[in-house]
Design brief:
There is one protein chain. The protein is an alpha/beta fold. It has 11 helices and 8 strands. It folds into 2 domains: 158 residues, 3-Layer(aba) Sandwich (Rossmann fold), CATH 3.40.50; 91 residues, Orthogonal Bundle (ProC C-terminal domain-like fold), CATH 1.10.3730.10. Strands 3-2-1-4-5-6-7-8 form an 8-stranded mixed sheet, with helices on both faces. The model has no long low-confidence stretch (mean pLDDT 93).
């Protein structure tokens, strides 16, 4: 039996999930994509998919087993009515939209379809996303399995039993890669200010983070790793004392996550 999967949106996140699904799963599903702004490069990379510019281009006879909403949350109300014509009560709707709760999705579609809310991150591009997901307890377990078949190839899945936690994980792991990218920028800029060339400072900063990530993947204790490279009275201790003075770093990170969570709830 052929399943029809519809992706609404094929931007960076949507196309990354599709790409990993096609590459690793060897799926026999027919994947349809609606995105009026999709690039030719994305179409080439995902040549096995069927692309459409709008819902009016879809065949009326198609009822989708699974729909993945990979669009900006501000666009959901605009497409919900058209989308409802192509799903049934047996369909599974998966949303990776930030801030949009499952109840709002169900009410807008008015089809009583199962809804799973997921917050991946941009590392899906290299199959290393952290996919935090929520499904109502009374949902059919087959829906959960269907979701895992699509998303597991893009990275590990972390289930939560309280939808409100999605706002918090959005702030931590959903937006998290950008925090590390920003720190690399700051580290490289400091290195350049200290006298290194721009290329040297950036290369050293990037490669240092890559090495640190490999270490922490083997030993998942950042505290132990930090202590192992921090000699009393040494250069690392001197630098860390600045970060940790008056809880400067802890307070700044906490403030950043609170701001991200607040924005998630506003969307």
């Amino acid at each position: 039996m052929t399943n029809h999967v519809l992706f609404v949106g094929a931007g960076n996140m949507g196309s990354a999930i599709i790409k990993s699904y096609l590459k690793i799963s060897g799926t026999s599903d027919v994947i349809h994509v609606i995105d009026p702004f999709v690039s030719d490069n994305t179409k080439d990379l995902l040549s096995e998919c069927k692309f459409y510019e709008s819902f009016t281009d879809l065949q009326d006879s198609i009822e989708f087993d699974t729909v993945v909403l990979a669009i900006k949350p501000q666009s959901f109300d605009e497409i919900s009515r058209d989308l409802s014509n192509f799903i049934t009560e047996k369909s599974l709707v998966i949303s990776i939209m930030a801030g949009v709760e499952t109840k709002r999705i169900s009410n807008s579609l008015n089809k009583n379809a199962a809804v799973i809310r997921c917050m991946p991150n941009i590392a899906a591009l290299v199959n290393r996303s952290v996919n935090v997901a929520y499904i109502a307890k009374d949902s059919n377990q087959s829906h959960k399995k269907r979701f895992e078949n699509i998303f597991l190839s893009s990275g590990p899945i972390k289930w939560v039993n309280n939808e409100d936690l999605i706002h918090k994980t959005t702030a931590l792991s959903g937006s998290g890669p950008a925090y590390f990218f920003l720190f690399i920028e700051a580290l490289a800029k400091a290195g350049q200010n200290a006298g290194l060339s721009e290329e040297q400072a950036m290369d050293l900063s990037i490669d240092t983070l890559i090495g640190a990530a490999a270490l922490i993947e083997q030993n998942r204790s950042p505290e132990k790793l930090r202590e192992s490279v921090t000699s009393k009275g040494g250069t690392t201790a001197a630098a860390l004392s600045v970060f940790m003075s008056n809880n400067n770093l802890d307070d700044l990170v906490s403030e950043a996550l609170i701001a991200a969570e607040k924005r998630s709830r506003e969307l």
